[in-house]
Specification:
The protein is mainly α and 514 residues long. The chain has 27 helices and no strands.
């Protein structure tokens, strides 16, 4: 019986471009190993399949016995990585620098200490220019080893210089780690709980931020230190919903790259993320004109022929361009027009499925559902909301899970599916009961929807108006802003009161945006 799995060797084979495959064949033949033919047969067998099937692989590679398969796959994996490392070396400075470190080690082992020191000096200079102090520190440590053990005629004055370099570089590396740790942990906190829900959340997040963010001198800080410093502030202010501060630090993040344009290409993924976080802040501030300007900048970078394309950068560009295109449709109230991009969005979701984490996939489903809901196609909205509701790990983005259930309940009401409405109400009630912290907006909407069965048609508009008034009051509370970021319930209520499509209400609001 055939076995079909997500085999890592198979995944790597199928990820190769035509030029990478051609390079691998030339690389393999150049190795001159005795079993080269076998692992090339295994490569060809895997490359010819659309899904990994062990029995078919063995049939297509007859020289590979079943008992040899595990070892042959390990060898193939190693050879593929070696080939890819060589193929991409010219496009990755860190690979080149590590290679030069290896050369320095070879020269050292052969006793050519001066040549080794020259190579290390080259590595150190290149690493510091590229804002890679961790590689520079490795080179400095190697220099110290050589200088401390051998008379190289370069020791005079060198000891103090090397010690000073080591201390200064180690300080930068330490600060980079401390800052990146703070930024990463704040991002992890956001993934788990979303925005601050109350004073306790605000206080605990602020305490965590202050405890973990090191004090640094920005005037003396390098590019990478400042980058992570701004990144940590972006995440902190995003969690506590201070979007103006979030905008300021996201702009500093992007400006850092604008002031160092060569870094856009060396650290392209961080530049792309900076633009996205700036767009996110602008979207939450409803700063439409600036949003359009930055979105165009992101799309222009995607089209830049000077940038280096990689699967990672292409995935991020897809993720952030489509996310912000949808957000643009939300701002403009053009939900029906936005439906046009869904087929290509779904195609790319499938294309990048092995790269996208569950959180991002769920966010796309919610945005797709919101497009359908805003355009009046409630059945398709329900289809994508249920992909979130039935996701097995409900602890992932509890807030998103909650709003998906509320929007699903409203969509069932709008679709006239009265026969399942009672079940949906019970389902939302159970979920809200399990939540760690319910917010007033969620509770009021649920109460309203639960009581709709007792409201006569003639009383509906008054009931909608009453709910709108309550929610407008709730929205003034700074800790109650979060639910309105996910669900524009006010616009929906206005559409019900005025008997017009919800997208018409949002288009009207769009005209007043700056």
């Amino acid at each position: 019986m055939s076995t079909k799995t997500n085999d890592p060797v198979f995944q790597l084979v199928k990820s190769l471009t035509k030029s990478e495959k051609r390079h691998f064949r030339l690389f393999s033949k150049r190795q001159g190993v005795s079993d080269g033919l076998k692992f090339l047969q295994l490569f060809d067998a895997m490359d010819s399949q659309t899904q990994y099937d062990e029995e078919k692989v063995l049939a297509l590679a007859p020289s590979v016995k079943k008992v040899q398969l595990a070892n042959m796959k390990a060898n193939l994996y190693k050879q593929l990585l070696s080939s890819l490392r060589l193929y991409h070396a010219n496009q990755n400075l860190d690979i080149q620098l590590h290679e030069q470190l290896d050369y320095a080690r070879v020269l050292y082992n052969k006793g050519f200490y001066q040549q080794s020191l020259k190579m290390l000096e080259k590595v150190k200079t290149g690493a510091l220019q590229a804002e890679m102090p961790h590689i520079a520190l490795t080179a400095i440590d190697f220099e110290k080893l050589i200088e401390s053990q051998y008379i190289t005629r370069s020791l005079e004055g060198k000891a103090e210089a090397l010690s000073s370099e080591a201390v200064d570089t180690a300080l930068h590396v330490s600060q980079i780690h401390a800052l990146s740790n703070a930024a990463l942990r704040l991002y992890g906190l956001y993934i788990k709980v979303g925005h601050a829900r109350n004073v306790e959340d605000y206080n605990s997040t602020t305490a965590f931020f202050k405890e973990n963010l090191p004090v640094i001198d920005l005037a003396r800080a390098g590019f990478t230190e400042r980058l992570y410093y701004y990144q940590a502030h972006v995440w902190y202010n995003y969690i506590v919903q201070d979007f103006k501060a979030c905008y300021r630090y996201a702009q500093k993040w992007v400006d850092l790259f604008e002031d160092n344009p060569e870094m856009k290409y060396k650290q392209d993924m961080l530049y792309i993320k900076g633009l996205h976080n700036l767009l996110l802040a602008l979207y939450n501030m409803l700063y439409y004109s600036k949003f359009k300007e930055v979105l165009q900048k992101l799309e222009d970078f995607a089209a830049d022929t000077n940038r280096r394309s990689s699967p990672n950068s292409e995935m991020l560009l897809f993720l952030f361009i489509y996310t912000n295109k949808i957000n643009n449709y939300f701002l403009e109230g053009k939900f029906t027009e936005g439906l046009e991009i869904i087929p290509e969005l779904l195609e790319n979701l499938n294309r990048f499925k092995s790269h996208l984490d569950p959180h991002r996939r769920l966010m796309f489903y919610y945005k797709i559902a919101s497009l359908y809901f805003g355009s009046g196609d409630y059945h398709h909205a329900i289809k994508y909301l249920q992909k979130i509701i039935y996701y097995k790990d409900i602890s992932l983005r509890e807030d998103l899970q909650c709003f998906a259930r509320i929007l699903n309940l409203i969509a069932h009401y709008e679709a006239g599916e009265d026969e399942v409405l009672e079940y949906q109400i019970r389902s939302v009630y159970r979920f809200l009961g399990k939540m760690n912290n319910q917010q007033q907006m969620q509770v009021e909407i649920f109460r309203f929807l639960r009581s709709l069965g007792d409201v006569t048609p003639g009383e509906l508009k008054d009931a909608f108006a009453s709910l709108k008034e309550k929610l407008m009051t709730i929205s003034l509370d700074p800790y109650e802003k979060r639910p309105f970021l996910y669900l524009d319930i006010i616009s929906w209520l206005e559409s019900k009161i005025e008997s017009i499509p919800v997208q018409e209400v949002i288009k009207r609001k769009h005209k007043g945006m700056k």
